[in-house]
Known about the structure:
Layout: E1 6-7, E2 12-13, E3 18-20, H1 34-37, H2 55-59, H3 66-78, E4 105-108, E5 111-116, E6 123-124, E7 138-140, E8 145-149, E9 163-165, E10 170-172, H4 176-185, E11 198-205, E12 209-215, E13 225-231, E14 238-243, E15 251-255, E16 262-271, E17 281-282, E18 286-291, E19 300-303, H5 316-329, E20 333-336
Parallel strand pairs: 5-7, 6-8, 7-9, 8-10, 19-20
Antiparallel strand pairs: 1-2, 3-14, 4-5, 11-12, 12-15, 13-14, 13-16, 16-17, 16-18
Amino acid sequence: MVHENQQHGDTTTRRCFQRNGIVVMALIALTTLAVLLGALAGKPQPAAAAPSTDATACATVTAIPVAECNALVELHQNTGGAAWVNRTGWLDFGAPTAPCTWFGVVCSGGRVTELVLPGNHLSGTLPVSLGAFTALTRLRLENNALTGRIPGALCALTSALVEVDFAYNALFARTRSAAQCADALDPDWRATQTTKVTDLHPVEFYTNALRIAWTPISYTADGGYYEILGALDVSGPYSVVAQTADKTTASYLFTGLAPGKSYFFAVRTVTPPHGDQPNTLISDPALTVGATLAVAGARVLVAAYFPADNDLAPEIPYVVERFRRGTQFNHNVQVVL
C-alpha cells in the first residue's frame, strides 16, 4: 500500500507504514466471508497460561483465607507486579500477618477488606479470582493501564463493596451481566475507558482507494487519537499508517491501493498521560477488511444452491448471512442464492 502526504478532510494520511505486528491478538474477531475475500479466518489466540502462584507459601498463610492469598498473588502476576510503582511487601510471606502487610492491602477480621492501588502502573488484565474477595469494601484501581474485560466474578462483591473506582483504564464488559455489575459498582466507569471503536467497516469503494468508518468511543476528553493500521494479509504484519487529529474522527481514506485487491485494516484508540494518569493507554484493535473495485469486466458472480432436505438445512440462514455480509466488504462480487 502506498499512502501519499495529503489532506482528506477528516484526517491526514502520512507516509510511514512502519512495521508493527501488535494487532495479531485480535485476529480472531475478524470473521468476513472467506469465499468472497480469500482466506480470512482469524488465528485463534493461544490458551492462557495457568497462573504460577506460590501455592506452598499461600498454604501457610493464616492471616486470610488461602483463596484470597492466591487471588492477590495472581493479581500481582496478571498486572505486571514487578513494574508497579510501589510493591512494598508483595510476595513476602515472612511476616505472620502477610499478605495484610503488602502495600495497598487492608485486612480486618481475617479477611481482605480493601485493595487500594490507584496510579500504581498496574497493566494487563484483572483475574477472575478477584471474586474471592467477598468481604471487600473498597476497590481502588483508577489511573492504571488495565486492559481487557471486567471479570463477571466481581458480581459476587456487590453486596459488600461501598467504594469502587475503575476510572481511566482500558477496560470493557464483555457480557451484559458483567456490565450491569460494573455499573452497580462504579456507575460512571465507562465514561473514562480507552476502548476500541465499534462498527468498523468500509463505506466507500474505489479502484485505488477505500474509506473505512467507525463509531467513535464516548470518552473523547483528555486528548488522544485513533491509530490507523493496514496490512496486505489477515495475519499481518500490520503497519501504522496514520493517526487522527482526535477521538471524534469517524472515518479514514486509504489511497494508493491496487484495483481488485483485499486489504486489512485496524483502528486502535490511544489516550496520552494526563492529570493523575501517568500511562499511555492503547485499546485493543478493531479490525475490518475491504476490497477495492476491480477494473471493468472483472466482477465475480457467485451462485449458491442449498438443498433443504438434508442435515445442512438448519445452517442455511447462517450461510446466507455470511454471503450477505461478505458482499458488503467486496463490491466486486454478486451473489445469487
